[in-house]
Amino acid sequence: MKDEYAPYKKLLLSLREKLVGKVDYMQEEALKKSRQDASGDLSNVPIHMADVGTDNYERELMIELIQNGEDSVRNIDDALERIEEGTFGICEACEKKINRERLKAVPYASLCINCQREEELGNI
Of all residues in the chain, what percent are helix, strand and coil, respectively (each to 5)? Predict the structure, then answer.
């Protein structure tokens, strides 16, 4: 069964590598901005209150993007673990097979489309 999912493993590893690179880059950029603020570099300090609001919004957005990227990496790691355990492609809620088209679209999916909808509606 593991051989059957070898293409998904390859795809998951590729996605993971890309995501980790993007998350690392965003973290470095966020740290650069934080260091500028901490150093008191006045050349980058906004003068107008609207600029302060924009800076805060951008910082919060960057944090959210980093968290989403980290969540996606965890989901990919979980999917890779399911491949090794032989449970990949099986819905964790109803234990039915997850449709191949869904796995192609979201290779780290742990729920079939019906259970995913139910979870989003708060029914699972």
Answer: 75, 0, 25
